[in-house]
């Protein structure tokens, strides 16, 4: 049996958003999201860390090729999110707030659709150096996956 290893890759993207839930009143949105609900929105330089888990290949000494992981992150997340207005440009966020938590879930779903099954372990999204959210796939439903459209 091969040793099980965890491998992570960090990438970054810049994007604008507004914390807002269209199903709440304007006043409730202001109360819940504060200054992050400003109608003009605001931007972040996000950092995404993708963690994979699996056996080390005895021939290559690697879990996977870093080049493959870089390409999966680029195609599934960066090409969709970088230099975009998350709320306006990505259909998934038209019905839900673009919080770090929801961005982590969205990124997980997108990555799980392009990576080999069972390889993705965790996605961590840092909105600022002080705020980050992580997601490991718990609680996803088919409805969540179907809603993950760009």
Automatic annotation (TrEMBL):
Belongs to the PTPS family. Transmembrane segments: none annotated. Coiled coil: none annotated. GO terms for molecular function: 6-pyruvoyltetrahydropterin synthase activity; metal ion binding. Pfam families: PTPS. The lineage of its organism: Eukaryota, Fungi, Fungi incertae sedis, Zoopagomycota, Kickxellomycotina. PANTHER family: 6-PYRUVOYL TETRAHYDROBIOPTERIN SYNTHASE, PYRUVOYL TETRAHYDROBIOPTERIN SYNTHASE. GO terms for biological process: tetrahydrobiopterin biosynthetic process. The keyword Lyase applies. Keywords: Lyase, Metal-binding, Tetrahydrobiopterin biosynthesis, Zinc. One of its GO terms (cellular component) is mitochondrion. It comes from Coemansia spiralis. Its cofactor is Zn(2+). Pathway: Cofactor biosynthesis; tetrahydrobiopterin biosynthesis; tetrahydrobiopterin from 7,8-dihydroneopterin triphosphate: step 1/3. Its EC number is 4.2.3.12. The keyword DNA repair does not apply. This is 6-pyruvoyltetrahydropterin synthase. It comes from the Eukaryota.
């Amino acid at each position: 049996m091969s040793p099980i290893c965890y491998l992570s890759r960090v990438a970054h993207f810049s994007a604008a958003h507004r914390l807002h839930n269209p199903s709440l009143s304007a006043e409730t949105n202001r109360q819940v999201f504060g200054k992050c609900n400003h109608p003009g929105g605001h931007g972040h330089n996000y950092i995404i860390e993708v963690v994979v888990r699996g056996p080390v290949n005895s021939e290559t000494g690697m879990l996977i090729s870093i080049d493959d992981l870089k390409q999966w992150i680029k195609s599934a997340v960066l090409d969709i999110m970088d230099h975009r207005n998350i709320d306006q440009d990505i259909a998934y966020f038209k019905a839900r707030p673009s919080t770090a938590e929801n961005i982590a879930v969205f990124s997980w779903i997108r990555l799980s659709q392009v990576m080999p099954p069972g390889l993705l372990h965790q996605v961590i999204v840092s909105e600022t150096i002080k705020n980050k959210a992580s997601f490991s796939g718990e609680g996803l439903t088919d409805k969540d996956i179907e809603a993950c459209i760009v």
